[in-house]
Amino acid sequence: DAGVIQSPRHEVTEMGQEVTLRCKPISGHNSLFWYRQTMMRGLELLIYFNNNVPIDDSGMPEDRFSAKMPNASFSTLKIQPSEPRDSAVYFCASSSLSGSSYNEQFFGPGTRLTVL
Amino acid sequence: QKEVEQNSGPLSVPEGAIASLNCTYSDRGSQSFFWYRQYSGKSPELIMSIYSNGDKEDGRFTAQLNKASQYVSLLIRDSQPSDSATYLCAVKDISGTYKYIFGTGTRLKVLA
Q1: How far, rounded to the nearest angstrom, does the alpha carbon of residue A96 sit from its chain's CA centroid?
Q2: Which residues contact B56 (CB under 8 A, 6 or more apart)?
Q3: Which of A48, B16, B52, B89 is at 20 to 30 A from B29, Cα to Cα?
Q4: Average pLDDT by stretches of 10, chain A with 116 residues
Q5: Judging by beta carbons within 10 Å of its beta carbon (0-12, 13-18, 19+), is residue A27 exposed, middle or buried?
Q6: Contact B99 A45 (CB under 8 A)
């Protein structure tokens, strides 16, 4: 089975540009998580969805960040406008919420974002 | 503020030795615990999950959970240079959400 798929794997952009990161969760999983990882701050949860509905976006740093999940197999994280301090690796993870599941999360390969 | 604490390391062990990685958590009611391995430049990979007090073994890995003392550990037997990575401890939040709270990770170096 395919794991979590993210695109692009690398993104280099200039300050002020719009950036869109994409994620396809594991088929059958109904929870999706967006994380950001930097050396300074470690792994931070930005937002997560359950059954395509945003549940907790308290980790989204500011209004420049937005996330959507229009269906069970696709999510986007958008940064507009981007700033150099947004440079990080962005991970998407998914998990299944069946009745007896303990909700193991599986990570995608990540998108390395560099904002110049 | 719910917290998961790990020693950042690096923890250096010789090849063939047992590596012991520790994690403490602040929320006494936590029920689900996970260890992830992250190689440099790669994504976190789930290697162990544990939910009950005691030991859980999987190959060279053993997870240990002590809820009374609020710690969870990961033992790696017969450590290999390929085990050199950062190990992240994660605890599932119990407030009715499905969030994980991650520690900052312990960097393990296995010396050949």
Answers
A1: 16
A2: B48, B50, B62, B63, B64, B65
A3: A48
A4: 92 97 95 94 92 92 94 97 97 78 84 98
A5: exposed
A6: yes
Chain A residues inside the 8 Å CB shell of B98: 31, 48, 50, 55, 95, 97, 103
| Residue B98 pLDDT greater than 90, yes or no | no
Q: What tokens were used for B37?
A: 């391995």
Alpha-carbon separation of residue A82 from A9, A78, A102, A114, B75 (angstroms): 17, 9, 36, 10, 42
pLDDT of residue A1: 64
B100/A48 touch (CB, cutoff 8 Å), yes or no: no
Provide Rg for chain A, Cα atoms.
Answer: 14
Tokens of A5: 């798929």
Q: CB–CB of B92 and A103 under 8 A?
A: yes
Tokens in use for B106?
């312990």
